[in-house]
Amino acid sequence: xxxxxxxxxxxxxxxxxxxxxxxxxxxxxxxxxxxxxxxxxxxxxxxxxxxxxxxxxxxxxxxxxxxxxxxxxxxxxxxxxxxxxxxxxxxxxxxxxxxxxxxxxxxxxxxxxxxxxxxxxxxxxxxxxxxxxxxxxxxxxxxxxxxxxxxxxxxxxxxxxxxxxxxxxxxxxxxxxxxxxxxxxxxxxxxxxxxxxxxxxxxxxxxxxxxxxxxxxxxxxxxxxxxxxxxxxxxxxxxxxxxxxxxxxxxxxxxxxxxxxxxxxxxxxxxxx
Length: 273
Fold this sequence. Notes:
mainly alpha; 273 residues
């Protein structure tokens, strides 16, 4: 019976892969085509690659400025969120911390609350602080919104690390922070890589928060920049596809570089013992 199901599984997997790869192929090959060639045959390989699409997207389309803003916002947000979440997750999973479970539930509860529910009070707070139309506004929002998920993932991984390692490091003369940074933290590369990749995807592709808090053209992110290629009566799809390809390359590179760590980190804590 199982042998008969195998061909069906392969067929379903093939159809699933085809449904995902087809639009990606259209976008990738469309970035090297002219508008007429793209509309005449969107599924074909470009006869003569048009590299000028990338130049117009990067320079004339101001994508280089959007890329710098997105990279800066993503880097600061992820680094600060990782620092805070690793310290918090370590603290709440160690013995002797009285309020560990309650703080853990508090952060996990933040995952449940939708962003739209706090949109108005958050915007009012940012406006009163004078942070609207600054990169600091979205950085603060990203740090706060990713902490709950980061602590949730890291806490599950920290619970799999024996507490005897902390005790042995302290007996050898390490302080609590040295035991964390020199012994525990190097063991957490899979979980940290998982949090890094998932947070990067969330921040890099986010459209909602930059649209809400950023007004100036020189502060816009990639997601806001891509939206300007969509017009009511005319859309330059080849240049838009070229911009999408350029915007996707950093995320793809990070994922490929951390792929093994990501796979092992996403399953960390799923099996106890």
